[in-house]
Protein backbone atom coordinates (compact mmCIF):
# COMPACT_ATOMS: atom_id res chain seq x y z
CA UNK A 1 0.00 0.00 0.00
CA UNK A 2 1.33 3.40 -0.92
CA UNK A 3 0.76 6.72 0.76
CA UNK A 4 -1.89 8.75 -1.05
CA UNK A 5 -3.34 12.21 -0.73
CA UNK A 6 -7.03 13.01 -0.38
CA UNK A 7 -7.40 16.50 -1.79
CA UNK A 8 -9.99 19.22 -1.50
CA UNK A 9 -11.81 17.65 1.40
CA UNK A 10 -14.31 20.04 2.96
CA UNK A 11 -13.73 21.22 6.47
CA UNK A 12 -15.68 19.44 9.17
CA UNK A 13 -18.13 20.78 11.65
CA UNK A 14 -18.55 18.49 14.60
CA UNK A 15 -20.97 18.63 17.46
CA UNK A 16 -19.36 18.44 20.86
CA UNK A 17 -20.49 16.95 24.11
CA UNK A 18 -18.51 16.33 27.24
CA UNK A 19 -17.62 12.84 28.31
CA UNK A 20 -18.13 12.26 32.00
CA UNK A 21 -15.98 9.30 33.01
CA UNK A 22 -17.02 7.20 35.94
CA UNK A 23 -15.31 8.22 39.12
CA UNK A 24 -15.01 6.40 42.40
CA UNK A 25 -14.77 7.81 45.88
CA UNK A 26 -11.45 7.35 47.64
CA UNK A 27 -11.43 3.85 49.15
CA UNK A 28 -10.28 3.00 52.63
CA UNK A 29 -6.57 2.48 52.99
CA UNK A 30 -5.04 -0.96 53.18
CA UNK A 31 -4.11 -0.39 56.80
CA UNK A 32 -7.75 0.41 57.63
CA UNK A 33 -8.86 -2.77 55.91
CA UNK A 34 -6.28 -4.83 57.78
CA UNK A 35 -7.38 -3.31 61.10
CA UNK A 36 -11.01 -4.26 60.53
CA UNK A 37 -10.03 -7.66 59.24
CA UNK A 38 -8.09 -8.21 62.46
CA UNK A 39 -11.18 -7.25 64.45
CA UNK A 40 -13.20 -9.70 62.41
CA UNK A 41 -10.75 -12.49 63.23
CA UNK A 42 -10.64 -11.55 66.89
CA UNK A 43 -14.43 -11.59 67.21
CA UNK A 44 -14.64 -14.90 65.39
CA UNK A 45 -12.32 -16.47 67.99
CA UNK A 46 -14.05 -14.84 70.95
CA UNK A 47 -11.16 -12.52 71.89
CA UNK A 48 -12.34 -9.22 70.43
CA UNK A 49 -15.29 -6.87 70.75
CA UNK A 50 -18.52 -8.24 72.21
CA UNK A 51 -16.80 -10.67 74.64
CA UNK A 52 -18.28 -13.93 75.80
CA UNK A 53 -17.51 -15.72 72.56
CA UNK A 54 -18.64 -12.73 70.48
CA UNK A 55 -22.16 -12.68 71.95
CA UNK A 56 -22.04 -9.20 73.41
CA UNK A 57 -25.08 -6.91 73.60
CA UNK A 58 -26.28 -5.12 70.49
CA UNK A 59 -25.17 -7.82 68.01
CA UNK A 60 -21.48 -6.95 68.35
CA UNK A 61 -20.30 -9.96 66.35
CA UNK A 62 -22.55 -9.24 63.35
CA UNK A 63 -21.81 -5.54 63.49
CA UNK A 64 -18.04 -5.99 63.32
CA UNK A 65 -18.31 -8.74 60.71
CA UNK A 66 -20.51 -6.51 58.55
CA UNK A 67 -18.08 -3.63 58.80
CA UNK A 68 -15.10 -5.85 57.99
CA UNK A 69 -16.85 -7.46 55.03
CA UNK A 70 -17.99 -4.09 53.68
CA UNK A 71 -14.49 -2.71 53.95
CA UNK A 72 -13.05 -5.81 52.31
CA UNK A 73 -15.44 -5.37 49.41
CA UNK A 74 -14.45 -1.71 49.08
CA UNK A 75 -10.80 -2.71 49.12
CA UNK A 76 -11.35 -5.30 46.39
CA UNK A 77 -13.19 -2.77 44.23
CA UNK A 78 -10.33 -0.31 44.64
CA UNK A 79 -7.76 -2.97 43.82
CA UNK A 80 -9.70 -3.99 40.71
CA UNK A 81 -9.70 -0.37 39.61
CA UNK A 82 -5.95 -0.14 40.14
CA UNK A 83 -5.32 -3.31 38.14
CA UNK A 84 -7.48 -2.23 35.20
CA UNK A 85 -5.48 -2.53 31.98
CA UNK A 86 -7.07 0.27 29.99
CA UNK A 87 -9.91 2.74 29.59
CA UNK A 88 -13.02 3.01 27.44
CA UNK A 89 -14.00 6.40 26.02
CA UNK A 90 -16.42 7.42 23.27
CA UNK A 91 -16.92 3.79 22.28
CA UNK A 92 -13.19 3.09 21.97
CA UNK A 93 -11.40 0.63 24.23
CA UNK A 94 -7.86 1.92 24.73
CA UNK A 95 -5.26 -0.37 26.24
CA UNK A 96 -1.66 0.28 27.03
CA UNK A 97 1.11 1.42 29.29
CA UNK A 98 2.91 4.76 29.19
CA UNK A 99 5.44 5.60 31.88
CA UNK A 100 7.73 8.51 31.10
CA UNK A 101 11.26 7.38 30.20
CA UNK A 102 10.40 3.70 30.69
CA UNK A 103 7.84 2.47 28.20
CA UNK A 104 5.02 3.68 25.96
CA UNK A 105 2.70 1.50 23.89
CA UNK A 106 -0.99 2.31 23.42
CA UNK A 107 -3.44 0.31 21.31
CA UNK A 108 -6.94 0.91 19.94
CA UNK A 109 -7.98 -2.65 19.01
CA UNK A 110 -11.19 -1.70 17.18
CA UNK A 111 -9.06 0.32 14.74
CA UNK A 112 -6.37 -2.40 14.57
CA UNK A 113 -3.65 0.13 15.48
CA UNK A 114 -0.90 0.55 18.05
CA UNK A 115 1.04 3.71 18.84
CA UNK A 116 4.71 3.38 19.80
CA UNK A 117 6.32 0.17 21.05
CA UNK A 118 8.64 0.74 23.99
CA UNK A 119 9.07 -2.89 25.05
CA UNK A 120 7.01 -5.02 22.67
CA UNK A 121 4.14 -6.00 25.01
CA UNK A 122 1.98 -8.93 23.98
CA UNK A 123 -1.21 -6.87 23.91
CA UNK A 124 0.20 -4.96 20.91
CA UNK A 125 1.17 -8.00 18.84
CA UNK A 126 -2.30 -8.52 17.35
CA UNK A 127 -2.47 -4.98 15.95
CA UNK A 128 -1.56 -4.91 12.24
CA UNK A 129 -0.64 -1.22 12.07
CA UNK A 130 1.98 0.42 14.28
CA UNK A 131 2.64 4.15 14.35
CA UNK A 132 6.01 5.32 15.72
CA UNK A 133 6.18 8.94 16.89
CA UNK A 134 9.93 9.27 17.47
CA UNK A 135 13.15 7.34 18.04
CA UNK A 136 13.62 7.40 21.83
CA UNK A 137 14.01 3.84 23.07
CA UNK A 138 11.02 3.96 25.41
CA UNK A 139 8.91 4.48 22.26
CA UNK A 140 10.66 2.33 19.65
CA UNK A 141 12.85 -0.13 21.57
CA UNK A 142 10.40 -3.03 21.25
CA UNK A 143 10.02 -2.80 17.47
CA UNK A 144 12.17 -5.85 16.55
CA UNK A 145 10.42 -7.96 19.18
CA UNK A 146 6.97 -6.87 17.97
CA UNK A 147 7.84 -7.88 14.40
CA UNK A 148 9.48 -11.14 15.47
CA UNK A 149 6.56 -12.14 17.72
CA UNK A 150 4.07 -11.62 14.91
CA UNK A 151 6.21 -13.93 12.79
CA UNK A 152 6.27 -16.49 15.61
CA UNK A 153 2.46 -16.49 15.66
CA UNK A 154 2.27 -16.68 11.84
CA UNK A 155 0.59 -13.29 11.60
CA UNK A 156 0.99 -11.29 8.42
CA UNK A 157 3.87 -8.78 8.32
CA UNK A 158 2.81 -5.57 10.09
CA UNK A 159 2.74 -2.12 8.53
CA UNK A 160 4.95 0.20 10.57
CA UNK A 161 4.85 3.97 10.08
CA UNK A 162 7.81 6.15 11.01
CA UNK A 163 8.83 9.78 10.52
CA UNK A 164 10.71 9.94 7.19
CA UNK A 165 13.88 11.26 8.86
CA UNK A 166 14.41 7.98 10.75
CA UNK A 167 13.35 5.42 8.15
CA UNK A 168 16.87 4.57 6.97
CA UNK A 169 18.11 4.17 10.54
CA UNK A 170 15.16 1.90 11.39
CA UNK A 171 15.96 -0.21 8.31
CA UNK A 172 19.57 -0.49 9.49
CA UNK A 173 18.42 -1.42 12.99
CA UNK A 174 16.21 -4.22 11.67
CA UNK A 175 19.03 -5.48 9.43
CA UNK A 176 21.33 -5.74 12.45
CA UNK A 177 18.71 -7.80 14.30
CA UNK A 178 18.23 -10.02 11.25
CA UNK A 179 21.94 -10.75 11.14
CA UNK A 180 22.30 -11.32 14.87
CA UNK A 181 19.20 -13.47 15.35
CA UNK A 182 19.14 -15.07 11.89
CA UNK A 183 15.41 -14.38 11.81
CA UNK A 184 13.67 -12.86 8.80
CA UNK A 185 11.87 -9.87 10.30
CA UNK A 186 9.13 -9.29 7.74
CA UNK A 187 7.62 -5.80 7.85
CA UNK A 188 6.27 -3.11 5.55
CA UNK A 189 8.05 0.05 6.69
CA UNK A 190 6.33 3.27 5.59
CA UNK A 191 7.82 6.75 5.89
CA UNK A 192 4.66 8.80 6.34
CA UNK A 193 5.32 12.52 6.08
CA UNK A 194 3.28 15.54 7.13
CA UNK A 195 0.54 16.19 4.58
CA UNK A 196 0.37 12.55 3.41
CA UNK A 197 -2.57 10.22 3.93
CA UNK A 198 -2.38 6.43 4.20
CA UNK A 199 -5.44 4.24 3.64
CA UNK A 200 -5.67 1.61 6.38
CA UNK A 201 -8.91 0.27 4.96
CA UNK A 202 -11.61 1.73 2.73
CA UNK A 203 -13.29 3.51 5.63
CA UNK A 204 -10.19 4.42 7.67
CA UNK A 205 -7.13 6.56 6.91
CA UNK A 206 -4.20 7.98 8.87
CA UNK A 207 -2.33 11.28 8.70
CA UNK A 208 0.64 12.55 10.73
CA UNK A 209 0.76 15.96 12.37
CA UNK A 210 3.66 17.96 13.75
CA UNK A 211 4.69 17.64 17.38
CA UNK A 212 7.55 19.30 19.26
CA UNK A 213 9.80 16.99 21.25
CA UNK A 214 13.53 17.04 22.03
CA UNK A 215 14.19 15.09 18.81
CA UNK A 216 12.20 14.93 15.55
CA UNK A 217 8.71 13.65 16.24
CA UNK A 218 5.19 13.52 14.88
CA UNK A 219 1.75 12.51 16.05
CA UNK A 220 -1.00 10.75 14.11
CA UNK A 221 -4.73 11.19 13.51
CA UNK A 222 -6.90 8.23 12.51
CA UNK A 223 -9.93 9.30 10.45
CA UNK A 224 -13.12 7.51 9.50
CA UNK A 225 -14.00 8.04 5.83
CA UNK A 226 -17.62 8.80 5.00
CA UNK A 227 -19.51 9.71 1.86
CA UNK A 228 -22.13 12.45 2.04
CA UNK A 229 -24.60 13.44 -0.67
CA UNK A 230 -23.63 16.77 -2.20
CA UNK A 231 -25.87 19.67 -1.24
CA UNK A 232 -26.99 20.35 -4.80
CA UNK A 233 -28.54 16.88 -4.95
CA UNK A 234 -30.24 16.96 -1.55
CA UNK A 235 -33.65 17.78 -3.12
CA UNK A 236 -33.64 14.75 -5.43
CA UNK A 237 -35.72 11.63 -4.82
CA UNK A 238 -34.18 8.22 -4.33
CA UNK A 239 -34.78 6.98 -7.87
CA UNK A 240 -33.29 10.18 -9.32
CA UNK A 241 -30.18 9.80 -7.18
CA UNK A 242 -29.87 6.18 -8.26
CA UNK A 243 -30.04 7.12 -11.95
CA UNK A 244 -27.36 9.78 -11.52
CA UNK A 245 -25.16 7.30 -9.69
CA UNK A 246 -25.62 4.69 -12.42
CA UNK A 247 -24.68 7.29 -15.03
CA UNK A 248 -21.31 7.72 -13.33
CA UNK A 249 -21.95 11.18 -11.88
CA UNK A 250 -20.03 12.06 -8.71
CA UNK A 251 -22.87 12.77 -6.30
CA UNK A 252 -21.10 12.51 -2.94
CA UNK A 253 -18.36 14.35 -1.06
CA UNK A 254 -15.66 12.41 0.77
CA UNK A 255 -15.42 13.63 4.35
CA UNK A 256 -12.82 12.65 6.92
CA UNK A 257 -13.93 12.57 10.54
CA UNK A 258 -11.03 12.61 13.05
CA UNK A 259 -11.63 9.72 15.42
CA UNK A 260 -8.45 9.17 17.48
CA UNK A 261 -5.33 11.33 17.72
CA UNK A 262 -2.06 10.35 19.41
CA UNK A 263 0.68 12.88 20.12
CA UNK A 264 3.48 10.85 21.66
CA UNK A 265 5.99 13.05 23.49
CA UNK A 266 5.62 16.74 22.79
CA UNK A 267 5.75 20.24 24.17
CA UNK A 268 2.50 22.19 24.37
CA UNK A 269 3.42 24.05 21.17
CA UNK A 270 1.46 21.52 19.13
CA UNK A 271 -1.76 22.85 20.68
CA UNK A 272 -1.30 26.31 19.16
CA UNK A 273 -0.42 25.12 15.65
CA UNK A 274 -3.40 25.75 13.29
CA UNK A 275 -2.23 22.78 11.20
CA UNK A 276 -3.09 20.50 14.13
CA UNK A 277 -6.78 21.39 14.36
CA UNK A 278 -7.88 17.83 13.56
CA UNK A 279 -5.91 16.44 16.50
CA UNK A 280 -7.73 18.86 18.81
CA UNK A 281 -11.19 17.97 17.51
CA UNK A 282 -10.78 14.20 17.23
CA UNK A 283 -13.30 12.27 19.30
CA UNK A 284 -10.42 11.00 21.45
CA UNK A 285 -7.08 12.71 21.97
CA UNK A 286 -4.34 10.62 23.58
CA UNK A 287 -1.63 12.97 24.77
CA UNK A 288 1.12 13.28 27.32
CA UNK A 289 1.21 15.07 30.68
CA UNK A 290 4.63 14.08 31.99
CA UNK A 291 4.71 16.45 34.98
CA UNK A 292 1.84 17.19 37.33
CA UNK A 293 2.88 19.39 40.25
CA UNK A 294 4.98 22.33 41.41
CA UNK A 295 8.05 20.18 42.13
CA UNK A 296 8.75 20.26 38.37
CA UNK A 297 7.89 23.55 36.66
CA UNK A 298 6.81 24.30 33.10
CA UNK A 299 10.28 25.49 32.07
CA UNK A 300 11.79 22.14 33.05
CA UNK A 301 9.07 20.28 31.13
CA UNK A 302 9.66 22.37 28.02
CA UNK A 303 13.42 22.02 28.26
CA UNK A 304 13.02 18.26 27.98
CA UNK A 305 10.35 18.37 25.27
CA UNK A 306 7.38 17.52 27.47
CA UNK A 307 4.15 18.98 28.78
CA UNK A 308 3.12 20.00 32.25
CA UNK A 309 -0.48 19.42 33.32
CA UNK A 310 -0.81 23.14 34.04
CA UNK A 311 -0.25 23.84 30.32
CA UNK A 312 -3.17 21.62 29.43
CA UNK A 313 -5.28 23.71 31.80
CA UNK A 314 -3.87 26.94 30.37
CA UNK A 315 -4.83 25.95 26.82
CA UNK A 316 -8.10 24.23 27.71
CA UNK A 317 -10.14 26.39 25.31
CA UNK A 318 -8.46 24.73 22.31
CA UNK A 319 -9.44 21.17 23.19
CA UNK A 320 -12.62 20.36 21.29
CA UNK A 321 -12.20 16.63 21.82
CA UNK A 322 -14.98 14.65 23.44
CA UNK A 323 -12.45 12.72 25.52
CA UNK A 324 -8.79 13.23 26.43
CA UNK A 325 -6.63 10.32 27.62
CA UNK A 326 -3.55 11.52 29.50
CA UNK A 327 -0.41 9.38 29.34
CA UNK A 328 3.37 9.38 29.92
CA UNK A 329 3.35 10.54 33.54
CA UNK A 330 6.74 10.63 35.22
CA UNK A 331 7.62 7.54 37.24
CA UNK A 332 8.07 9.84 40.26
CA UNK A 333 4.28 9.85 40.70
CA UNK A 334 2.05 7.25 42.28
CA UNK A 335 -1.35 6.31 40.96
CA UNK A 336 -2.96 8.38 43.72
CA UNK A 337 -0.83 11.41 42.76
CA UNK A 338 -2.11 11.14 39.20
CA UNK A 339 -5.74 10.83 40.23
CA UNK A 340 -5.47 13.73 42.61
CA UNK A 341 -3.86 15.98 39.98
CA UNK A 342 -6.50 15.14 37.37
CA UNK A 343 -9.29 15.79 39.87
CA UNK A 344 -8.04 19.37 40.25
CA UNK A 345 -8.58 20.21 36.58
CA UNK A 346 -11.22 22.84 35.91
CA UNK A 347 -14.65 21.34 35.31
CA UNK A 348 -14.55 21.94 31.54
CA UNK A 349 -11.58 19.58 31.34
CA UNK A 350 -12.13 17.16 34.21
CA UNK A 351 -15.44 16.04 32.70
CA UNK A 352 -13.65 14.72 29.62
CA UNK A 353 -10.22 13.68 30.95
CA UNK A 354 -9.19 10.10 31.77
CA UNK A 355 -5.71 9.04 32.94
CA UNK A 356 -4.04 5.89 31.60
CA UNK A 357 -2.40 4.64 34.78
CA UNK A 358 -1.28 1.10 33.97
CA UNK A 359 2.27 0.60 35.27
CA UNK A 360 2.06 3.03 38.21
CA UNK A 361 2.38 1.92 41.82
CA UNK A 362 -0.43 2.21 44.32
CA UNK A 363 -1.20 1.47 47.96
CA UNK A 364 -3.47 -1.29 46.71
CA UNK A 365 -0.76 -3.37 45.03
Automatic annotation (TrEMBL):
Domain Metallo-beta-lactamase: 128-329
SUPFAM superfamilies xref list: Metallo-hydrolase/oxidoreductase
InterPro entries: Metallo-B-lactamas, RibonucZ/Hydroxyglut_hydro
CDD domains according to UniProt: RNaseZ_MBL-fold
Molecular function in Gene Ontology: 3'-tRNA processing endoribonuclease activity
Pfam families recorded: Lactamase_B_2
PANTHER family to which the protein is assigned, alphabetical: TRNASE Z TRZ1, TRNASE Z TRZ2, CHLOROPLASTIC
Protein's name in the database: Metallo-beta-lactamase domain-containing protein
Species the sequence originates in: Oryza sativa subsp. indica (Rice)
